[in-house]
């Protein structure tokens, strides 16, 4: 029909090339996703030493793990980043937490995202003269956390200490695959510099 807007037809030579490129891109994405799941399930190193520890709240086991690391690093300070505004130290920590550990713990109430965690941690590191830092978060969140913290703390030695959340005990469940897919895409976006929105 005259004046109708029909999509342009692809050249007979171009269509196969686009199909191959699409298949290659999909294959690369799937291979990367498989590696991401494997990486997220790696165990933490046996021992780590640093003068700072940061636990990024938002999942099971992170605070407990950070307390264990604090007890084994007697000269370290601990930041628990992203704490709810209504939460006190005593409400967040187990009642059995020794007073000497309590004295070395700071609660961070400002962060509401991974980028916020990085900003909050950078301010705490500067205030406490931290030069080495252990990062405690879920394995599937670790890559993005290390990336954002590395951007704000280029001169601080960062060591990952991943926590295995309950979801990762069954990595091939649909709910876990969906979660991992979301975290994988967020990490790819952060790599590309797209995740600079403080709400992400």
Question: Would you kindly provide a written description of the structure presented here, covering whatever features stand out?
Answer:
This protein has 7 helices and 5 strands, in the order αβαβααβαβαβα. By secondary structure, the chain is of the alpha/beta class. It has a single domain, classed as Rossmann fold. β4 (132-138), α6 (139-152) and β5 form a beta-alpha-beta unit. α1 (14-40) crosses α6, α5 packs across α6 (139-152) and α6 runs parallel beside α7. The model has no long low-confidence stretch (mean pLDDT 86).
Question: What attributes does this structure have?
Answer:
200 residues, alpha/beta, Rossmann fold, 7 helices, 14% strand, elongated
Note the main sheet.
Answer: 5 strands, parallel
What structural class results from the helix and strand content? alpha/beta
Beta percentage is 5-15%
The helix-strand sequence is HEHEHHEHEHEH
**What is the mean predicted local confidence, pLDDT?**
86
Give the C-level CATH assignment.
Alpha Beta
User: And the CATH topology?
Assistant: Rossmann fold
Count of the separate structural domains: 1
Tell me the distance between the termini. Answer: 47 Å
How does the overall form come out from the CA principal axes? elongated
Low-confidence stretches: none
How would you sum up this structure in a few lines?
Helices cover 46% and strands 14% of the residues. The protein has 200 residues and is α/β, with parallel strands linked by helices.
